[in-house]
């Protein structure tokens, strides 16, 4: 019996080549795209799953209330010490802080490599569970002069991953530091913490400098609680202790964030240096994956039922010969399973061919082997089962329900059931298409807004590079003086931090000296006298730093958000202090217009500039637009003169800001592409539906032509049914798209207006698809000879 069903299925598929081909194309495209998206979504949600006791692991952050309320990811070393020792429910705590420096193998300073690394407490590998290829997780960071590097870093430095016991030298400002490789870690791909190397928190240079201590007020703290302990209890105890500290103002509190949500849901926490995704974008891709699969199934249903009338006689004959409905259902369902399995095989081939393009869209490095490890086969099996049942069950029930007396008549074409259901499926397709197009246009508008918004300072011709090298760290003033004299340079500035990094190495609570109850957690930039001029920051009150004024070395220039947060009515007449109201007061000499140096996901926060006498690690150069090429060549030659042992590397500030939104841009491209796939599948579905409508109206069209109806009249008769459904779908889809668009934009503190453009674009594109898909077949039917439709009468 099964063999007979298989033969019948092959025979029917071969007989209806157009339907079979359309079904295979639609299902292959739908299965392959949905499969890739489902695996991608699964991968993103699985970030940090390897962390031991992940359900009990949390990230410490602070919340600030007031005019510029915000969440602050940085904590202080005292928090780490407090949590490590004074809470019965805390199993252990860990701290990390990111940095980058040049490293080179011992005795080979010409082979320098810039490496992104983290200072970390000695329990880093035990706490987070990062896999080590070589080394003991409990001991690799116990020696302050040790280092753990990833496998790829070991190969880049030493030409081999077998680097245990070898010495790598860290280039310092005043002296270098030799570190012994005690561990080789697997390259990090599935965590919010990305690193090329890990260095012990206690690492000390020969000069006695312990660099990690410079981050004592700006580090990241994690805790792991004992099973059964409520993190809310620890939060309450921590905040109770905070409330008892001298100078506490009540506008700051500690919170704990689940580590499993760090990658996708920590976007509203400021000063974060971690890899991150977007929960809303991932949910959108998951939605699109389901939609693509559902649309592909709807297409199959439409085409099978549209062509079902041709098989009505087969059903009638088989029923007369004794076949019961169950057998027919199994036959038709078997055909659906066969088509789906063939499509699944083609999907695997299509995925293999298109994987590199998918990686470019998503920024991942998936391989076929990686997808197999991520569960390709189980997910594929689930998709095949879902697709087979969803797409095959309804046609099987409809086609097997024909009565022999009706099925054997020529009028069987008019007796097909399910007209309302098919219109409903068509309506669903239109809603989906309108919705996806509108949401994609909204996301595109926001992406354009992110890249085009005025940030409040000049970022277009400003480059930045490090001057914390061995030679330049001592001679950067002479270097700066020479480049300032070059005609192509507008201004230059040395500073601790630059505006393109998104964060600074220093922040803390600042409060009014006269009224300590007024405080604001402030981002502090250590700068020189030319910083505001280099970045073209606009003063709205007061003046710039003056190198001739000795008092300016302890003065501040702040932004408007700082004034608003502290509620200062006369800022030039007040003094503020950092960390403690008893510290030395600093006078405000100027106020700059608010500017964005962080993602537009976040509100502008309080900022203060002060003159820094040390740790001026970065040089920013504002160049004239018409002389950029010549100026860059001059800077490179001047660099070679001052720093001959190291290559000149720089970055444009606008490129650094583009990096903020790189993940959003990639995901927007992915969403746009797969939305287009869904729209193409909808067009295939329309083709199936039009085929059915025209087949059902062949005699009506023939009679109308005989009675003198024009081709235009016939086209309108066929089109109006689809246009009415499209109009109703538009009414339903616009509020849905509007709500989804607002939800998407709520992730940004600053966003574009939605307007009517997204909905007009969606309607125009959908209308064009209808006119093209339906119109072509309607014209073909209108030109057909009516004798062919009426000759059976």
TrEMBL record:
GO terms for molecular function: transmembrane transporter activity. Its main location: membrane. PANTHER family: ABC-TYPE MACROLIDE FAMILY EXPORT SYSTEM PERMEASE COMPONENT 2, MEMBRANE COMPONENT OF TRANSPORTER-RELATED. It is a multi-pass membrane protein. It is found in: Cell membrane. Keywords: Cell membrane, Membrane, Transmembrane, Transmembrane helix. This is ABC transporter permease. The chain crosses the membrane at residues 21-41, 281-303, 332-355, 375-403, 424-444, 673-694, 714-736, 756-776. GO terms for cellular component: plasma membrane. Residues 287-404, 673-786 form the ABC3 transporter permease C-terminal domain. The lineage of its organism: Bacteria, Pseudomonadati, Bacteroidota, Cytophagia, Cytophagales. InterPro entries: ABC3_permease_C, MacB_PCD, Macrolide_Exporter_MacB. Residues 20-235, 431-595 form the MacB-like periplasmic core domain.
């Amino acid at each position: 019996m099964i063999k007979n069903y298989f033969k019948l299925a092959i025979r029917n598929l071969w007989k209806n080549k157009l339907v079979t081909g359309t079904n295979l194309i639609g299902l292959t495209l739908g299965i392959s795209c949905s499969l890739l998206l489902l695996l991608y979504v699964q991968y993103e949600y699985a970030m940090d799953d390897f962390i031991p006791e992940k359900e009990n692991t949390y990230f410490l952050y602070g919340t600030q209330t007031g005019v510029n309320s915000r969440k602050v990811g940085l904590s202080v070393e005292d928090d780490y010490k407090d949590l490590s020792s004074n809470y019965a429910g805390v199993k252990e705590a860990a701290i990390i802080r990111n940095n980058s420096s040049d490293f080179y193998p011992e005795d080979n300073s010409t082979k320098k490599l810039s490496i992104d690394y983290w200072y970390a407490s000695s329990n880093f590998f035990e706490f987070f569970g990062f896999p080590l290829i070589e080394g003991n997780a409990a001991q690799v960071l116990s020696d302050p002069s040790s280092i753990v590097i990833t496998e790829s870093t070991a190969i880049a430095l030493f030409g081999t991953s077998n680097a245990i016991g070898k010495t790598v030298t860290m280039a310092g400002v005043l002296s270098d530091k030799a570190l012994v490789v005690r561990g080789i870690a697997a390259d990090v791909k599935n965590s919010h913490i990305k690193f090329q190397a890990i260095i012990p928190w206690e690492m000390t240079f020969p000069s006695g400098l312990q660099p990690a201590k410079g981050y004592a007020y700006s580090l990241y703290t994690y805790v792991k609680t004992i099973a059964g302990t409520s993190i809310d209890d620890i939060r309450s105890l921590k905040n109770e202790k905070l409330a008892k500290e001298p100078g506490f103002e009540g506008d700051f509190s500690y919170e704990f964030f689940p580590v499993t949500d760090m990658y996708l849901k920590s976007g509203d926490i400021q000063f974060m240096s971690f890899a991150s995704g977007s929960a809303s974008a991932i949910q959108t891709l998951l939605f699109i994956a389901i939609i693509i699969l559902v649309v592909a199934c709807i297409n199959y249903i439409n085409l099978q039922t549209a062509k079902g009338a041709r098989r009505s006689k087969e059903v009638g004959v088989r029923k007369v010969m004794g076949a019961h409905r169950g057998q027919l259902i199994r036959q038709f369902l078997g055909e659906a399973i066969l088509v789906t399995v063939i499509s699944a095989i083609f999907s695997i081939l299509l995925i293999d061919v298109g994987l590199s393009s998918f990686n470019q869209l998503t920024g991942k490095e998936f391989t076929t082997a990686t997808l197999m490890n991520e569960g390709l086969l189980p997910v594929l099996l689930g998709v095949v089962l879902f697709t087979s049942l969803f797409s095959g069950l309804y046609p099987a029930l409809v086609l097997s329900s024909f009565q022999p007396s009706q099925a054997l008549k020529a009028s069987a074409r008019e007796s097909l059931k399910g007209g309302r259901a098919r219109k409903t499926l068509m309506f669903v397709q239109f809603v989906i298409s309108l919705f996806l197009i509108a949401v994609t246009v909204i996301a595109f508008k926001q992406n354009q807004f992110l890249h085009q918004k005025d940030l409040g300072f000049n970022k277009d011709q400003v480059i930045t590079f490090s001057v914390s090298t061995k030679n330049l760290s001592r001679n950067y003033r002479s270097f700066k003086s020479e480049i300032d004299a070059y005609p192509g340079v507008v201004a230059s500035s040395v500073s601790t931090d630059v505006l393109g990094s998104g964060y600074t190495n220093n922040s803390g609570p600042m409060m009014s000296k006269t009224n300590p109850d007024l405080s604001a957690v402030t981002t502090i930039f250590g700068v020189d006298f030319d910083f505001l001029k280099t970045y073209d920051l606009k003063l709205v009150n007061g003046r710039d730093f003056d190198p001739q004024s000795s008092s300016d070395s302890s003065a501040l220039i702040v932004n408007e958000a700082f004034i608003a947060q502290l509620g200062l009515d006369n800022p030039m007449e007040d003094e503020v202090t950092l960390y403690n109201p008893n510290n030395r007061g600093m006078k405000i000499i100027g106020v700059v217009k608010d500017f964005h140096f962080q993602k537009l996901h976040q509100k502008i926060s309080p900022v203060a500039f002060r003159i820094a006498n040390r740790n001026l690690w970065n040089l920013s150069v504002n160049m004239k637009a018409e002389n950029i090429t010549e100026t860059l060549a001059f800077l490179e030659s001047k660099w070679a003169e001052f720093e001959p042992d190291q290559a000149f590397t720089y970055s444009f500030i606008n490129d650094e800001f583009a990096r903020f939104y790189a993940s959003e841009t990639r995901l927007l491209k992915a969403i746009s592409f797969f939305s287009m796939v869904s729209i193409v599948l909808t067009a295939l579905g329309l083709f199936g539906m039009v085929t059915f409508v025209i087949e059902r109206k062949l005699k009506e069209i023939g009679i109308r032509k005989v009675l003198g109806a024009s081709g235009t009249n016939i086209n309108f008769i066929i089109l109006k049914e689809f246009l009415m459904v499209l109009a109703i779908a538009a009414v339903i889809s616009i509020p849905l798209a509007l709500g989804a668009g607002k939800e998407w934009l709520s992730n940004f503190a600053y966003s574009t207006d939605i307007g009517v453009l997204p909905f007009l674009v969606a309607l125009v594109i959908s209308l064009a698809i209808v006119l093209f898909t339906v119109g072509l077949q309607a014209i073909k039917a209108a030109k057909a000879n009516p004798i062919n439709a009426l000759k059976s009468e």
